[in-house]
Amino acid sequence: MLFKTAITEMFGIEYPVICGAMMWLCKPRFCAAVSNAGGMGNLTAGNYETEEEFRAAIAETRRLTDKPFMVNITLLPSVRITPEHHKMYIRVCTEERVSGIEFSGTPVDKVAGMAAIEDLKRAGVKLFHKVGSVRHALHAEKVGYDGIYAAGIEEGGHPLDDDVTTMVLTPRIVDSVRIPVVTVGGVADGRALAAALVLGAQGVMMASRFVATRECEVHENIKQELVRRQENETVIYGKSLGLQGRGLKTKVLEEVCAIEKRGGGFAELIPLLSGQRVKEAWETGDVDYAPLMVGQSIGFINDIPTCRELLERMGREAAACLDRAKKSL
Question: How far, in Å, CA of 217 to CA of 188, rounded?
Fold first, then answer.
């Protein structure tokens, strides 16, 4: 099926499927693999602590693919990544004229000012903000973003505590803004892609499904765990910290939830939630060691294909679903 949506047209990609940000995983080789397969890869800026490392990663990705890719910049409080890092990432993306940026967390205009947005737009960088509410989507449109990621509560990572589902959030935001909308949360196959398009989205973003691909540089134990697990085996945590997350239900998150339930504070929780623990877990395959931020879409993960196999299958499935829907009229 030949897809023609605002997203495929904006970036010149084959499938309206964007890889979401994943700390420690979305690096040049994996990013390029997704883009070379016809989707849009993701280079997660938070993987890099210096300007030299970040520029080198952009250069390496461009060496591995001549296709566009998205850069993620997460504008949230962090022990390791400072506000100075955020401003550096934005400046480097402007100077390097990357294809697009997926922002999450605090709006860019509040972090770096409207001048940063204007500089990015002059450089031809397409700007998307991942939001979980209509009010945040309206703000992004007002200040000049090129598109919205509508992220439902099903997503892994940090869903907004409005707790609105993807099925409701996508059409609500589509009806509320004039810029393209990308559906996020619960997406792992062609049926979800077809559903998103019917709801008015111009594409989908998914991350959990991409972990279980051949090219993702994560321990095989993790991939097999995602194949085994079902949609009811994730848990919401972090509400007591004012930043809820969704991750795989494991011993460490059971401990985190128990600490929160009895009123334990930041000092007890942060050692269990540190990014370094996550990095080690991805590498060693110890699923119980750190919070692995995956979404409810793991219920649809049944195999470990290549990125190309996955996207081609999603395309076929979406086409078949849309054809069936048309015939039912």
Answer: 19
pLDDT score of 196 more than 90: yes
In the chain, which residues fall in CATH 3.20.20.70?
A: 6-218+300-324
Element (H, E) at 128: strand 126-131
pLDDT at 314 over 90: yes
Q: Tell me which residue of 313, 201, 293 sits closest to 243, measured CA to CA.
A: 293
User: In the predicted model, is pLDDT for residue 79 greater than 80?
Assistant: no
* C-alpha span between 72 and 100 (Å, rounded): 9
Whole-number pLDDT of residue 80: 86
Chain segment 231-246, per-residue pLDDT in tens: 999 999 999 999 999 9
The listed CATH number (3.40.190.10, 3.30.200.20, 2.102.10.10, 3.20.20.70) that belongs to domain 6-218+300-324: 3.20.20.70
Comparing CA positions, the residue from 268, 183, 231 lying closest to residue 7 is 183
199, 188 in Cβ contact below 8 A? no
Q: What are the φ/ψ torsions at residue 192 (nearest 5 degrees)?
A: -65, -35
For 316, what's the count of Cα atoms within 13 Å in the CB-facing half-sphere? 6
